[in-house]
Specification:
Elements (H helix, E strand, L loop, with lengths): L8 E8 L4 H11 L7 E7 L4 E7 L2 H4 L2 H5 L5 E8 L13 E5 L2 E8 L5 H10 L11 H9 L5 H11 L5 E6 L2 E6 L8 E5 L2 E5 L3 H6 L2 E5 L5 E5 L2 E5 L9 E2 H7 L5 E2 L3 E2 H15 L6 E4 L5 H11 L7 E3 L12 H11 E3 L1 H4 L3 E6 L6 H12 L5 E6 L21 H4 L2 H8 L3 E4 L2 H7 L6 E2 L1 H4 L11 H7 L2
Parallel strand pairs: 14-23, 17-20, 20-21, 21-22
Antiparallel strand pairs: 1-4, 1-10, 2-3, 2-4, 5-6, 6-7, 7-8, 8-12, 9-10, 9-11, 12-13, 15-16, 18-19
The chain binds adenosine monophosphate (AMP).
Adenosine monophosphate binds next to helix 13.
């Protein structure tokens, strides 16, 4: 069953009604590059034909002026893909384009479908031939095979069959469609520029192109944008919303406004301040593991009235250590990525803020680096999220439960492993106190409370896919 590609974090961008649709999409993907660095693609429509270009690599390296010129039209969608090794192949890069009875279409999907393996098996029995191992392709085949009435009915019929997280864009010759799963797991926002509509995973994409944020695409909502304007439908409903809390902690960019217009930077600072209230210790200086730990460290320092400084310097020109395939390379990766500023740290008691501990590799290396290279007297690790105990099945790239150090070790055991003087995580109660309760969040990675069940699958079986 390993055909199923479960690791996907992505960024999507779409535009309707702008003469420079592909150029705007290129810029939008550029701003969303943090959501996926493995490959990217753009599909445009000139009203009669779809034009697709996609490659492995970073947005800026893939698209030249010449390549963008070959993507004409006033409608476009784009996708940044992030996945683990093994599925790192061009055929899995989106948008996925296909021709079926009602004409050509292209889709760009952010999230993970938990029942994709079953649906795929059924579709293959009916004769569907898949081009990729990406779960997103299931949606294309469901639309093509659907016996429901018109195109919109087919889309609705299809998205009602898939279970999991999807922030989805669909491009046809004359229209752009956006659908968000009923739980609202991944973010998706609607904006406007020069009378054209834009849709993006995060609002930082709007800032770059000068678009104005209008509102979120609501959980369960389907937007149809065409010549007649914008039409909203609510084809999907859930008993609760379950927006991914890890978007706030790590994944989204701090300048973005997500889940009802909440600023990510502000949220992270509040997590840091709450963490400070929960973890008193005598120290001289607060530093962050850059970049993801910086806002929480600033919030922590403000609340604890301790100075904040940049005690670790990050080399920005290498990939994320997390996605390196082998243990040996990952160990090396931390050293290559971060270097301590001895002048700031020597002889001091240091509080280090990071957003999360996954395997524990990064923290262990950092503690050693701060003591040996930095000359720190004491190293106190503070994590601006609760212990990561459960893998994510809804689109965040986490390793198996066995590899999550907090799934089998308590904070004291982890402290000993990473050789810190003290280690404190933000409490789950503290985290929940900070995020506004007007919204419901998925906190499965911290409490194993999975809001979207796995039809026909048990949790243990699901986890087998991650092995
Ligand atoms: P580890 O060394 O496995 O404990 O990884 C911890 C580091 O990975 C932290 O510094 C986090 O900022 C970062 N991190 C957490 N989740 C992810 C993710 N899904 N993708 C990439 N990096 C992550």
């Amino acid at each position: 069953m390993l055909f199923h590609d479960i690791h996907e974090e992505c960024g999507v961008f779409g535009v309707y009604g702008h003469p420079e649709a592909a150029n705007l999409t290129y810029l939008g993907l550029y701003a969303l590059q943090h959501r996926g660095q493995e490959g990217a693609g753009i599909c445009s429509s000139d009203g009669r034909h779809l034009h697709l270009d996609k490659s492995m690599g970073l947005v800026a390296d893939i698209f030249s002026e010449k390549r963008l010129k070959k993507l004409p039209g006033h409608i476009a969608i784009g996708h940044n893909r992030y996945s683990t090794a093994g599925s790192s192949v061009l055929k899995n890069v989106q948008p996925i384009m296909a021709n079926f009875a009602l004409g050509p279409l292209a889709i760009a999907h952010n999230g993970n479908l938990v029942n994709a393996p079953e649906l795929r098996e059924e579709l293959e029995k009916e004769g569907a031939i898949f081009q990729s191992t990406s779960d997103s392709e299931v949606i294309v085949h469901l639309i093509a095979h659907s016996k429901a009435g018109d195109f919109y009915d087919r889309v609705i019929h299809s998205v009602r069959q898939v279970s999991g997280a999807f922030s989805l864009l669909i491009l046809r010759e004359k229209e752009l469609i956006a659908v968000r799963d009923a739980y609202g797991v991944r973010p998706l926002s609607l904006g406007q520029i020069d009378g054209a509509y834009v849709i993006a995973s995060e609002t930082c994409a709007f800032d770059l192109i000068g678009a104005t944020y209008i509102r979120d695409v609501e959980p369960g909502e389907m937007l149809i944008i065409d010549e007649a304007g914008i039409k909203s439908m609510q084809p999907l409903t859930a008993s609760r919303h379950a927006s991914c809390i890890f978007e706030f902690i790590y994944f989204s960019r701090p300048d973005s406004y997500i889940f009802g217009g909440q600023n990510v930077n502000e949220m992270r600072k509040k997590f840091g301040a709450q963490l400070s209230r929960e973890s008193d210790v005598d120290a001289d200086l607060v530093i962050a593991v850059p970049d993801s730990g910086v806002p929480a460290a600033i919030g922590f320092a403000e609340e604890s009235k301790l100075p904040f400084d940049f005690g670790l310097i990050r080399n920005h020109y290498i990939g994320r250590t997390f996605i390196e395939p082998k243990q040996s390379i990952r160990h090396f990766g931390v050293k290559i990525k971060l270097n301590p500023v001895r002048k700031l740290l020597e002889g001091k008691r240091i509080i280090v803020i990071d957003d999360s501990i996954v395997r524990g590799t990064t923290s262990k290396k950092i503690v050693k680096m701060l003591r040996e290279g930095g000359g720190a007297k004491e190293v106190h690790i503070r994590i601006s999220s609760p212990p990561t105990v459960g893998p994510c099945f809804y689109g965040i790239d986490t390793p198996t439960r066995q590899e999550l150090i907090a799934s089998s070790h308590n904070a004291e055991e982890i402290r000993r492993y990473i050789t810190a003087d003290t280690l404190v995580y933000l409490s789950l109660e503290g985290l929940k106190r900070i995020v506004p309760m007007s919204h419901n969040y998925c906190t499965a990675c911290f409490d194993n409370n999975y809001p979207i069940s796995f039809p026909g699958e048990h949790l243990e079986q699901m986890e087998l896919f991650l092995k």
